Amino acid sequence: METCWEEAGWERLAPGVARRRMPEWDETVGVVVGRADILVVDTGATLRAGAELRSGITRLTGRRPTRIALTHPHFDHVLGAAAFAGCEVYGATGLDELLRRERETLREDAIRHGVDRDAATEAVDHLASPHHLVCGELTLDLGGRTVLLANVGPGHTAHDLAVLVPGRPEVVFCGDLVEESGTPQAGPDAIPGHWPAALDRLLALGGADARYVPGHGSVVDAAFVRAQRDELAARFGVSG
């Protein structure tokens, strides 16, 4: 029987695929369920949020998550990762070095955006570094279901990872390369000149009929991603 995700506050996107819009920062967390493994896409902004996600997914599926994909290195997407003890963690090439090098920056960014100081410090002290780095594409077999991890950046950051879940419909977790609830945020670690090209790669990955899941906001279609790509190109003066 298909898990009733909606009753637990999740949005079902396809069979065995769901996402949750977290409170406070509206960041998306995704889950993909296979027969052998459960992949979580991003982990929330604190260890407490990560622990609640882990226990909720375990209740819904009867199994503990086993793998995590981090779409990019911002606090609201990575600081809950250490709550998923025993999971294999995947990220774009270079993410491991950045998380080691920028721990204090990550902590201060979380505090500046409203995370309790002690909670931010605890999460950074236990920060989970990726075990597997993706350069190009990597296919994961979750047991009766494959998932493609694609290093489509740089753009929103230097380490943007997308997650494609084949099926009907195909689902693409975009991280903050795509945002629906507001204008895409280009912080000091963004690479604006490459962002439109990253969205071109994202569209090529998912195709015209996929459901695109932004890092913040409602699920969108290819036309929305294409329009946002064009807006970013105009905003940053990128031709093509």
Largest sheet: 7 strands, mixed
Overall radius of gyration? 16 Å
Q: Could you estimate the helical fraction of the residues in percent?
A: 25-40%
Structural class: alpha/beta
**Helical segment tally?**
7
Query: Rough shape?
Result: globular
Strand content: 25-35%
Please provide the count of β strands: 12
The low-confidence parts are none
Largest sheet, spatial ordering of strands: 1-2-3-4-5-6-7
Let me know the average pLDDT. Answer: 95
Element string (H = helix, E = strand): EEEEHEHEHHHEEEEEHEH
Q: Termini distance?
A: 47 Å
What distinguishing features does this structure have?
Glyoxylase-like metal-dependent hydrolase (Beta-lactamase superfamily II), alpha/beta, five-stranded mixed beta sheet, 7 helices
Can you describe what's shown?
The structure is a single chain. By secondary structure, the protein is an alpha/beta fold. The protein is built from 7 helices and 12 strands. The strands form 2 sheets. A 7-stranded mixed beta sheet has the order 1-2-3-4-5-6-7, with no helix packed on it. Helix 6 (195-206) links the parallel strand 11 and strand 12. The longest helix is centred in the first third of the chain and has 15 residues, at 47-61. The protein is globular, with a radius of gyration of 16 Å. It starts with 10 loop residues before the first strand and ends with a helix. The model has no long low-confidence stretch (mean pLDDT 95). This is Glyoxylase-like metal-dependent hydrolase (Beta-lactamase superfamily II). It holds the Pfam family Lactamase_B. It comes from Streptomyces iranensis. Residues 26-216 form the Metallo-beta-lactamase domain.
